[in-house]
Design goal:
Number of strands: 21
Structural class: mainly beta
Mean pLDDT: 84
Number of helices: 1
CATH class of one domain: Mainly Beta
CATH superfamily of one domain: Macroglobulin (MG2) domain
Shape: globular
Order of helices and strands: HEEEEEEEEEEEEEEEEEEEEE
Helix content: under 10%
CATH topology of one domain: Immunoglobulin-like
Radius of gyration: 24 Å
Length: about 300
């Protein structure tokens, strides 16, 4: 048999065998309403009453449409507040499929709505909690310390929806600088002392596309002993916000569960891209919230096994 005919026969046999193979099932985005997941770690699934093995949050029900990004409308009164002057911010959440106002939210770490306020120069950080009004909107008073752009990062979970971390930019009165600026950041992994508490960071070199374990140790700044009276803050031993220099990537993280004293807190943090990233970490000791920032250099490439 000529070689060309042999090749044609082989190709026909292969095509016929492939046609007999079962076709892969399409990815199913909708899930059973009885299934539960962790709002902070959506890959963790389980049954009602169970807790996330990473952060110990109670699992909540998952409904269809889990990949939808909700709409967030922000209203400021006055629209362009002067630096240092209290302004009222209102947040309206709308269903992405119907446009209807969302009025039901899941409690995540003791609050329905977490709001992070970060200046574009990354010098100002605040973590506040707007309160829900009668119409389902959330409101909070803000005082922005200096002129410029600020990023509002709203963190919430609509009942039956996916966790949302949505950003909106606001600008103070009197600011005439560029619309978009990226601050020049220098690496800063040094110890921070806040209210007589030393906060020390230990971690391996961060690489783009990889996760890193960030371990924070709290000690008494005077004696060097492990910090006493470290308490849960908003239902967790700590909170961490990570952003890159231009604020295009942000994530709110909670500690992983581990067998360690309260003065040692670890977070598993993903660094999605290279460049400088700033993290703000918060703990509570003796009723006082401690906030410290670190600047993490992230290498260009993630290498397997590093």
């Amino acid at each position: 048999m000529p070689i060309a005919i042999r090749i044609a026969v082989v190709l026909l046999l292969v095509a016929g065998a492939a046609a007999c193979l079962p076709r892969p099932r399409p990815l199913q985005l909708a899930v059973s309403a009885s299934e539960h997941w962790c709002p902070m770690h959506p890959g963790i699934r389980g049954a009602a009453g169970e807790r996330c093995p990473i952060c110990q949050m109670a699992l909540v029900p998952v409904a269809s449409g889990i990949g939808d990004t909700y709409a967030l409308d922000v209203e400021l009164v006055p629209p362009a507040p002067a630096p240092g002057v209290v302004a009222r911010a209102r947040f309206h959440v709308r269903d992405p499929r119907t446009g209807a106002a969302v009025t039901e939210f899941d409690v995540v770490h003791e609050k329905l709505f977490h709001l992070f306020v970060v200046s574009r120069d990354l010098q100002h950080f605040a973590h506040v909690h707007p309160l829900r009004g009668a119409n389902g909107a959330f409101g909070v008073d803000l005082a922005l310390p200096h002129a410029g752009h600020y990023q509002l990062m709203a963190d919430f979970v609509p009942t039956g929806g996916a966790p949302q971390l949505l950003q909106r930019t606001i600008t103070t009165a009197g600011y005439e600088g560029p619309l978009s600026t990226t601050p020049a950041l220098a690496a800063d992994l040094s110890d921070k002392v806040v209210d007589d508490t030393r906060i020390q960071l230990a971690m391996r070199e961060a690489m783009a596309g990889g996760e890193r374990l960030m371990t924070f140790t709290l000690t008494d700044a005077q004696t060097g002993a492990p910090a006493a009276h470290v308490e849960p803050y908003l239902g967790a031993t700590g909170h961490l916000l990570r952003v890159n220099a231009d604020l295009s990537a942000a994530a709110h993280s909670h500690p992983i569960a581990q067998d360690s004293p309260p003065s040692t807190v670890a977070f598993q943090v993903l660094f999605p891209r290279a460049g400088m990233h700033r993290v703000w970490v918060q703990f509570q000791r003796s009723g006082r919230v401690l906030t410290a920032s670190f600047t993490i250099p992230v290498a260009e490439r993630y290498r397997a096994g590093t």
